[in-house]
Design a protein that fits this description.
It contains 7 helices and 7 strands, in the order βαβαβαβαβαβααβ. The protein is α/β, with parallel strands linked by helices. The chain has one domain: 3-Layer(aba) Sandwich (Rossmann fold). Strands 3-2-1-4-5-6-7 form a 7-stranded parallel β-sheet, sandwiched between helices.
């Protein structure tokens, strides 16, 4: 069993979807969890209650990851209230889907501010805290198969995730001397509330049956993979990309 006892994890966008899955699986493995959210406070409190029911500490913190000062305050609060910071999961995202010829500047800007710049702010400010502590750490970026599959109408999101992958690899190279690992998970089509922005329930059910694994991924699938990559069981893994997509990419262009 993966053991995260004694670890403190900060997970952005943790009130719903993949972030929620990561928070709960890491708590089950023994970590105390800081649950960041932007606009779903009640759901964040629900996650915190579940974390506490597992015997772990939970801290709920509202912050827009695109706001660097807010992220700085969040990281400081996590370290102070939970004692230290060992794991960062950069999961918060925003996606504006429009055809390339029609996408507006604001949609493009906001997607990059949250999905790419937000990950940068969280990773850099969190890594600085880890370096001060001198006990190593793990940074995990939740990217997407969109990083290399040019999905139409998702230019902004595709661009943000492609940039995230290379950013993560560069961070991993620079943090080797501090024994801070940086890795990436690329989810495929995952059953999350966010998917309901772009597809109906019927489309999601039908689409899932057509996937190579015969179903959409779950937040538990992602949470378990994230827990492994952030644990000491993955101590020799850094600068890597793990696809958790049920083989989606294998048939993406077929």
């Amino acid at each position: 069993m993966i053991d995260l006892k004694g670890k403190v994890a900060l997970i952005t966008g943790a009130s719903r979807g993949i972030g929620r899955g990561c928070a709960l699986e890491m708590a089950r493995a023994g970590a105390d969890v800081a649950i960041n959210y932007h606009s779903h406070g009640e759901e964040a409190e629900e996650v915190a209650a579940q974390v506490r029911s597992l015997g772990r500490q939970a801290l709920v913190w509202q912050a827009d990851v695109a706001d660097r000062q807010a992220v700085e305050e969040m990281v400081a609060a996590v370290a102070q209230r939970l004692g230290h910071l060992d794991i960062l999961v950069c999961n918060a995202y925003y996606s504006k889907r429009e055809p390339f010829l029609e996408i507006g500047i604001e949609g493009m800007r906001r997607t990059l501010e949250v999905s790419l710049w937000g990950a940068f702010h969280v990773a850099q400010l969190g890594a600085r805290q880890m370096v001060r502590q001198g006990r190593g750490g793990s940074i995990l970026f939740i990217s997407s198969v969109h990083a290399f599959i040019p999905v139409p109408t998702a230019l902004a999101y595709n661009t943000a995730k492609a940039g995230m992958n290379h950013m993560a690899a560069t961070i991993a190279a620079e943090l080797l001397e501090h024994h801070i690992r940086a890795n990436v998970i690329e989810p495929g089509w995952i059953d999350t509330p966010g998917e309901r922005q772009f597809a109906t329930e019927e489309q999601i059910r039908e689409g899932g049956r057509k996937l190579p694994w015969g179903r959409l991924g779950t937040i538990e699938d992602l949470g378990r993979a994230a827990t492994f990559l952030c644990s000491d069981a993955a101590d020799y893994i850094t600068g890597e990309v793990m696809r958790v997509d049920g083989g989606y990419w294998l048939r993406a262009n077929s």
